[in-house]
C-alpha cells in the first residue's frame, strides 16, 4: 500500500495547505477559491476511504453549491474585494497550547484506541447500499430530511427575500 | 416489513399530524394569498389533535421503526411514557405560544409573512417531538437540526431592529458550531462501539469495558450539543443575546419548549446509554465516565453564572434569559442525582416552569406592546397603572424565585428532596443560596413597579379580555398547585418510566 | 490495476501536468518585457475604467440558495432512484412523499415570486416627461 499512502498524504497536504490559506488570506476572494481546494482534498480522502458516493456529493454540494453561494455572497457585497479583511492572529500562545493539547489527545487516542473494525468486502459503488438503508432502516429519516429541506428552503427564502415596500 | 411500518406509523400519530399540519400551513399560505388569519387556527387544530392523541397513548412502551431484515432489535424511536410526558409539555407550550403570538404586536407587524412564521413554528414543534423519543444518534442529530434551523430563522424573523438579525446570526453561528461538535462526538462513539443506536451502545458497554480518554472526550462533545440546547454553562453564551433579540413569543418558546426537548434528550441519553442497573429507583451507571460529578459541576456552574449575571440586567427579557439559565441549572441537579425521584422532580419542574415562565414573558410582552420598551426603568409605577398585570407579574416572579405559596416552591422542593435523598447536602445548600440571590433581581422588578417614583407620566396600559383570560389560565394553576400539588405529582408519576434494556 | 477513481486521479494529475509544463516551457523561452499597459485588465482593447468587481443583483443570491437546497435534494434522490424498484410500490411511495414535500417548497418559491426576476418599474408619467424633454431638445 505504498502508493495508497502517498496519495493519502498528497490529499491531506492539499486540504491542510489550502485551509491555512483560507484563514490567512487577506483577500476574501482568494480565501473563497482556496476553500475549493480544501473541499476537493476532503473528497479525495473520501474516495480513499471507499466512500465514493460521499466524495461525489462533497464535490456536488460543496464545490457546486456552497462555494458558488459563498462567491455570490462576496460579490453581492459592494467593494468588499478591495477591503483587506483583518486576519491577524490574536492570543497566539493560548491557541498553540490548546491546539497542542487537542492534537495530542487526538493523536494519542487515534493510535492507542482499539477501534471497532470488521472485515468488510468493499463494494465498488456504495450508492446502492445507501439507497437500501435509506428506504428500509432509515426511511423515517429519509422523509424527515424532506421536511428539513422544506424548512431550510422556506427559512432561507424568507430571510434572503427583500420585503415588499 | 410493511406491516411493521404501518404499526410503527400508527404509534407516531402526533408527529404525523404535526407534519401534515406543517405542510397544510404551507399550502394554505400559497392558496390564500390575501387572508392569513386562518393559518394560526389551522396550526392550533393540528396541535390540539396531536395533544389529544398524545394524551390517549399513555401506556405505549415500545421500540419503533425497526424496519428491514438486518436483525435489529431497536429502532430509531423509543416510545415510552417519559417521552410522551415531554411531548405533552411541548404541545401544551406550543398551543399557548400560538395564542401568545396572536396578541403580540411584533407578530402583527409581520402578519403578511405569517405563513412562514407558523410553518417554522410547527417545524420547531416537530423537531422537538422527535427529539424526546429519538433513540438513535442519527435520529437525535436530525431532530436537533430540524429544531435548530427553524429557530435560527424565527429568532430574526421580524427584522425590526438590527439586534434581531444580530441575535439570529449569533444563534446560527453558535448553533452550527455546537451541532458540528456533537456530530464529531457521535462519530467517535460510532468508531469505538460500532453502533449508532443508544440501546445497542448500552449492550456493548455492558459486556466490554471501554475506559479511555477518547470515550469521555466523545461524551463531553455530545454533551456540548445538548448543553447548547438547554443553555447549560459553559455553552450558554448565546442565550442572553438571542433571548433579547428574538420576538418575545419566540423567546418564551425557546426558554420552555426547546429546553424541555433538550432535557428529555439528555435524560434519555444518560439513562438508556449508561444504565447498568436500576435498584429501587437509583440508577447505577456504567463505569468509565462519571456522569454524576460531571453534571453536578455543570449545574452548579450554570445556576451560579445565571443568577449572578441576572443581577446586573436592566432589560427584562435579558434578565429572564439569565434566570432561565439558572433554572436549567436547578433542573440539571434533578438529573445529577441519578434517581427516579430526581427524574420526577425534573418533570414536575418543567410543568410548573411552563406556567410561570410563559406567564412572565406574556406580561412583559403586553407591557412592551404598550410602552415599547422592556427596560426596567420604564416599569416605574406601572404596578399602580395596571394593577392586574402588576399583581400577576408579582406572582409569576415569586413563583420563579421558588417561594411559597406558589407552584415554583413545589418544583424546587422536589429537587431538594431528591438531593437530600442521596445525601448531597452541600449541593443542596448551594442551590438554596442561589435561590436567595435570585430573589434580589426578581424583587427588583417589583420595587420598580410598585415603589419607585417616576418623573414621567405613567403610560396607560391597555389589557384586553383575551389577555386577562390567558394570564388567568396560567396564574390560577400557579397559585393552586402551590397549595394543592398532589395532582401534578400524580400526573408526573404516571409518566415516569423510561424504556431501558 | 486502476479503479474508476484511479483513472480520474490520473486524469487530474495529467491535467495539472499539462498546464504546469506548458506554462513552465513558455517561461523558459518567452521574452520578458513587462510594461504598465500589459499589467492592465483586458477590456476589449479599451482603457479599463473602475474596478472589475461589480455588485451583483441580490436576486442571484436567492436563486443560488434555492439551487443549493435542491442540490441536496438531488443527492438524496440518487440512491433512492437506484434501488426503489427492488422495494416495489412501497419504495415508490416513500420517494413520492419526499418529492411531494419538496415540490411544495418549489411551489412556495414560485408563488412567492422568488423565481421571478425583478424588473425595474417604469413610471409612465416620468417616462413621458423625459420623452417630451428630449423632443424639445431635438427640436
Largest sheet of chain C: none
- In whole angstroms, how far apart are the ends of chain B? 24 Å
What's the overall average pLDDT of chain C, rounded? 83
Low-confidence stretches of chain C: none
> Major beta sheet of chain B, specifics?
2 strands, antiparallel
Question: How is this structure best described in words?
Answer:
- The complex is a heterotrimer of chains A (165), B (501) and C (139).
- Chain A is mainly alpha-helical.
- Chain A has two domains: 1-85, NADH-ubiquinone/plastoquinone oxidoreductase chain 6, subunit NuoJ (Four Helix Bundle (Hemerythrin (Met), subunit A)), CATH 1.20.120.1200; 125-165.
- Chain A is 73% helix and 0% strand.
- The longest helix of chain A has 25 residues, at 52-76.
- The mean pLDDT of chain B is 89.
- Chain B has a domain at 295-501.
- Chain B is 73% helix and 3% strand.
- Chain C has 139 residues and is mainly α.
- Chain C has a single domain, classed as Methane Monooxygenase Hydroxylase, Chain G, domain 1 (Up-down Bundle).
- The longest helix of chain C is centred in the first third of the chain and has 26 residues, at 4-29.
- Chain C is flat, with a radius of gyration of 28 Å.
- Chain C starts with a helix and ends with a helix.
- Chains in contact: A-B, A-C, B-C.
- At the A-C interface, helix 3, helix 5 and helix 6 of A face helix 1, helix 3 and helix 4 of C.
Amino acid at each position: 500500500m505504498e502508493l495508497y499512502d502517498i496519495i493519502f498524504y498528497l490529499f491531506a497536504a492539499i486540504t491542510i495547505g489550502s485551509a491555512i490559506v483560507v484563514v490567512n488570506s487577506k483577500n476574501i476572494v482568494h480565501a473563497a477559491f482556496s476553500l475549493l481546494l480544501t473541499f476537493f482534498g476532503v473528497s479525495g480522502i473520501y474516495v480513499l476511504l471507499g466512500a465514493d458516493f460521499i466524495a461525489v456529493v462533497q464535490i456536488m454540494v460543496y464545490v457546486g453549491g456552497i462555494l458558488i453561494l459563498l462567491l455570490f455572497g462576496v460579490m453581492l457585497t459592494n467593494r468588499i474585494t478591495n477591503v483587506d479583511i483583518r486576519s491577524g492572529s490574536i492570543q497566539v500562545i493560548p491557541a498553540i497550547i490548546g491546539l497542542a493539547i487537542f492534537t495530542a489527545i487526538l493523536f494519542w487516542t487515534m493510535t492507542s484506541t482499539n477501534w471497532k473494525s470488521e472485515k468488510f468486502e468493499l463494494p465498488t459503488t456504495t450508492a446502492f447500499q445507501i439507497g437500501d438503508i435509506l428506504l428500509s432502516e432509515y426511511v423515517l429519516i429519509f422523509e424527515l430530511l424532506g421536511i428539513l429541506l422544506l424548512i431550510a428552503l422556506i427559512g432561507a427564502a424568507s430571510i434572503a427575500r427583500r420585503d415588499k415596500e | 416489513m410493511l406491516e411493521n411500518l404501518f404499526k410503527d406509523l400508527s404509534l407516531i400519530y402526533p408527529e404525523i399530524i404535526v407534519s401534515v399540519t406543517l405542510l397544510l400551513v404551507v399550502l394554505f399560505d400559497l392558496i390564500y394569498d390575501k387572508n392569513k388569519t386562518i393559518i394560526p387556527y389551522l396550526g392550533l387544530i393540528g396541535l390540539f389533535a396531536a395533544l389529544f392523541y398524545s394524551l390517549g397513548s399513555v401506556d405505549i412502551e415500545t421500540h419503533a421503526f425497526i424496519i428491514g431484515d438486518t436483525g435489529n432489535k431497536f429502532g430509531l424511536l423509543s416510545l415510552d411514557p417519559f417521552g410522551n410526558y415531554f411531548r405533552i409539555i411541548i404541545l401544551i407550550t406550543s398551543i399557548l405560544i400560538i395564542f401568545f403570538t396572536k396578541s403580540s404586536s411584533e407578530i402583527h407587524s409581520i402578519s403578511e409573512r405569517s405563513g412562514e412564521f407558523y410553518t417554522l413554528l410547527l417545524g420547531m414543534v416537530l423537531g422537538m417531538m422527535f427529539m424526546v423519543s429519538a433513540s438513535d444518534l442519527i435520529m437525535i442529530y436530525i431532530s436537533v437540526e430540524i429544531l435548530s434551523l427553524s429557530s435560527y430563522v424565527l429568532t430574526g424573523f421580524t427584522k425590526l431592529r438590527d439586534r434581531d438579525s444580530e441575535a439570529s446570526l449569533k444563534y446560527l453561528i453558535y448553533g452550527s458550531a455546537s451541532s458540528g461538535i456533537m456530530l464529531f462526538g457521535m462519530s467517535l462513539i460510532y468508531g469505538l462501539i460500532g453502533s449508532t443506536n443508544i440501546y445497542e451502545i448500552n449492550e456493548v458497554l455492558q459486556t466490554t469495558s471501554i475506559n479511555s480518554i477518547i470515550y469521555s472526550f466523545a461524551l463531553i462533545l455530545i454533551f456540548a450539543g445538548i448543553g447548547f440546547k438547554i443553555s447549560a454553562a459553559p455553552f450558554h453564551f448565546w442565550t442572553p443575546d438571542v433571548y433579547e433579540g428574538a420576538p418575545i413569543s419566540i423567546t418564551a418558546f425557546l426558554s420552555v419548549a426547546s429546553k424541555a426537548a433538550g432535557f428529555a434528550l439528555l435524560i434519555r441519553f444518560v439513562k438508556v446509554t449508561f444504565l447498568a442497573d436500576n435498584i429501587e429507583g437509583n440508577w447505577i451507571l456504567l463505569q468509565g465516565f462519571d456522569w454524576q460529578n460531571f453534571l453536578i459541576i455543570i449545574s452548579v456552574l450554570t445556576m451560579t453564572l445565571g443568577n449572578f449575571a441576572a443581577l446586573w440586567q436592566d432589560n427584562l427579557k435579558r434578565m429572564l434569559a439569565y434566570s432561565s439559565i439558572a433554572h436549567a441549572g436547578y433542573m440539571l441537579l434533578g438529573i445529577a442525582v441519578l434517581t427516579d425521584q430526581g427524574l420526577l422532580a425534573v418533570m414536575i419542574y418543567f410543568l410548573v416552569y411552563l406556567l410561570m415562565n410563559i406567564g412572565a414573558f406574556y406580561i412583559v410582552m403586553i407591557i412592551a406592546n404598550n410602552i415599547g420598551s422592556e427596560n426596567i426603568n420604564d416599569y416605574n409605577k406601572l404596578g399602580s397603572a395596571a394593577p392586574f398585570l402588576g399583581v400577576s407579574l408579582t406572582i409569576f416572579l415569586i413563583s420563579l424565585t421558588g417561594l411559597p405559596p406558589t407552584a415554583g416552591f413545589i418544583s424546587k422542593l422536589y429537587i431538594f428532596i431528591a438531593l437530600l435523598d442521596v445525601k448531597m447536602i452541600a449541593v443542596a445548600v448551594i442551590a438554596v443560596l442561589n435561590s436567595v440571590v435570585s430573589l434580589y433581581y426578581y424583587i427588583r422588578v417589583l420595587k420598580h413597579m410598585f415603589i419607585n417614583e417616576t418623573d414621567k407620566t405613567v403610560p396607560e396600559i391597555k389589557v384586553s379580555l383575551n389577555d386577562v383570560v390567558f394570564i388567568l389560565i396560567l396564574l390560577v394553576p400557579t397559585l393552586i398547585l402551590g397549595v394543592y400539588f398532589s395532582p401534578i405529582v400524580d400526573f408526573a408519576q404516571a409518566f415516569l418510566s423510561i424504556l431501558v434494556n | 490495476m486502476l479503479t474508476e477513481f484511479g483513472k480520474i486521479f490520473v486524469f487530474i494529475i495529467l491535467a495539472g501536468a499539462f498546464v504546469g509544463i506548458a506554462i513552465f516551457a513558455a517561461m523558459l523561452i518567452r521574452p520578458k518585457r513587462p510594461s504598465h499597459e500589459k499589467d492592465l485588465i483586458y477590456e476589449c482593447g479599451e482603457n479599463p475604467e473602475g474596478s472589475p468587481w461589480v455588485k451583483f443583483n441580490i436576486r442571484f443570491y436567492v436563486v443560488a440558495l434555492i439551487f443549493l437546497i435542491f442540490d441536496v435534494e438531488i443527492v438524496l434522490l440518487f440512491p433512492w432512484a437506484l434501488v426503489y424498484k427492488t422495494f416495489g410500490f412501497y419504495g415508490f411511495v416513500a420517494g413520492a412523499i419526499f418529492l411531494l414535500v419538496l415540490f411544495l417548497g418549489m411551489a412556495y418559491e414560485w408563488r412567492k415570486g422568488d423565481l421571478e426576476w425583478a424588473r425595474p418599474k417604469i413610471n409612465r408619467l416620468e417616462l413621458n416627461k423625459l420623452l417630451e424633454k428630449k423632443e424639445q431638445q431635438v427640436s
